[in-house]
Amino acid sequence: MDLSLSTRNVSGPGGDRTVVEVGGEIDVYTAPKLREQLVELVNDGSYHLVVDMEGVDFLDSTGLGVLVGGLKRVRAHEGSLRLVCNQERILKIFRITGLTKVFPIHTTVDEAVAATD
Amino acid sequence: MATVELRFSAQPEHVRTARLVAAAVARRAGVDEAVLDEVRLAVGEACSRAVGLHRSHGITAPVRVVLNEEEKAFSIEVGDGVTAAGDAAAGEARDGAAPGDSHESDAEGEDEMGLAVISGLVDDVEVTSGDDGGVIRMSWPTASAVALP
């Protein structure tokens, strides 16, 4: 299964948030598409991103690298990158790489959009 | 002879094929269903790393994946064509590159993260490098290896 991407803007208590809904497999082949999308959003001035990973079937270290790259970019503009994920097999990858300490991970998009800290 | 052997040209789009084949053979070999996700991820990481190495070293030979069903274990070997000597030469070339070449350092960071994921996932893993290139060997117990009560 290929990667699917869609974005939408949502207003939260802390201001506008851009939700990036990701579906399919994020691997060495598809990760560049996600990277392009995140770079494009930041270049267009969206610095508060919520990446919804509920539709992701597979994530590898290339995908993690792209998310870390996205975080680096939004932080340069004092922005934020929050993840939405409830899937144990995806969460496990964040855990074994220690990235649960780097990314705020939420259970719902609403919760991520409402977060202001 | 290997149970299944796969060779693919060093293109990112073929890594998914390697993952699917490895998971299918592991399932047949009796690897626990709960562990198949780990097999899929680990073989994907090893193949992504090999593809990256082949591309950065300009190696045209295919990446090699050997899947072996053994008596009490299932093993996977992912071989790249980068010899220890070739890697040293590429290291020198990299050292000579202009600072701030962020793309290259990104790729190296991902390579290390790939190995970190593999070592976090797989208990039995061995990384070797020789005259024929580097090999990542991983193995998992199969159902027949689990002691009966």
How many discrete structural domains of chain A? Answer: 1
The CATH class of chain B is identified as Alpha Beta
> Which strand order does the major sheet of chain B show?
1-2-3-5-4
Q: What is the total number of structural domains of chain B? A: 1
The count of strands of chain A amounts to 5
Structural class designation of chain A: alpha/beta
Multimeric status of the protein: heterodimer
Strand segment tally of chain B: 5
The CATH class assignment of chain A is: Alpha Beta
Alpha plus pi helix count of chain B:
4
Structural class by helix and strand composition of chain B: alpha+beta
- CATH homologous superfamily of chain B - what is it? Histidine kinase-like ATPase, C-terminal domain
- Name the chain pair whose interface involves the most residues: A-B, 15 and 23 residues
Beta-sheet strand percentage of chain B? 15-25%
Helix content of chain B: 40-55%
Low-confidence stretches of chain B: 97-105
What would the CATH topology of chain B be? Answer: Heat Shock Protein 90
Characterization of this structure:
The complex is a heterodimer of chains A (117) and B (149). Chain A has helices at residues 31-43, 61-75, 88-96, 109-114, and strands at 4-12, 15-26, 48-59, 80-84, 105-106. Chain A has 117 residues and is α/β, with parallel strands linked by helices. Chain A has one domain: STAS domain (Transcription Regulator spoIIAA), CATH 3.30.750.24. Chain A has a 5-stranded mixed beta sheet. The longest helix of chain A is centred in the middle third of the chain and has 15 residues, at 61-75. The model of chain A has no long low-confidence stretch (mean pLDDT 95). In chain B, helix 2 (33-56) packs antiparallel against helix 4 (102-121). By secondary structure, chain B is an alpha+beta fold. Chain B is globular. The longest helix of chain B is centred in the N-terminal third of the chain and has 24 residues, at 33-56. Mean pLDDT of chain B is 85; it is low at 97-105. Chain B has 4 helices and 5 strands, in the order E-H-H-E-E-H-H-E-E. Chain B has a single domain (4-143), classed as Histidine kinase-like ATPase, C-terminal domain (Heat Shock Protein 90, 2-Layer Sandwich), CATH 3.30.565.10. Chain B starts with a strand and ends in an 8-residue tail after the last strand. In chain B, strand 4 (124-130) and strand 5 (133-141) form a beta hairpin. Chain A binds chain B through residues 25, 27-29, 58, 60-62, 64-65, 69, 89, 93, 96-97, and chain B through 12-13, 15-16, 19, 37, 40-41, 44-45, 47-48, 51-52, 106, 109-110, 113-114, 116-117, 120-121.
